[in-house]
Every structure is written in structure tokens, then in C-alpha cells.
Amino acid sequence: MRESWTGDLIGKMHNSEIRLKELAEVSHLSTAYVCMILNGKRNPPDARERLESAFEQIVSTRNKHTTKPVQ
User: Which of 19, 20, 36, 64 sits at a 20 to 30 Å CA gap from 11?
Assistant: First the structure.
């Protein structure tokens, strides 16, 4: 059964245009394994922390690249 945090993360990924492959790369997991976690097929103890951290890292990196310098 899928946990509520996975649905929340999937929604945030959609809104931020973050792909599953990108989340998998940053979290150092395979795309297939991340898919299993998000679909409730696997539930490793550190999954939530690891995937949410990877998501935040991607968002932070994107914000650094899109922020224009103040003149």
C-alpha cells in the first residue's frame, strides 16, 4: 500500500517538472527501485528521508541556476 508521503512527493515532482530518472540519479538509486518505492511495492526505512532530500537538492540546484544576479 502506498504511503501518503509518496503521493505528496509525486505531486511536488509533477509541479516542479522533476522526472523519476532525475530523482533516482540524485538519490543514488535505480529508477526501477524509486518507482517501486513511490508505488508502495518497497518500503526501505530511509526511503522518505532519502527521496525528499534528493527532491530538495534538485529544486535548490535549479533555483541557483535560474536566479538572476542583482545589479
Answer: 64
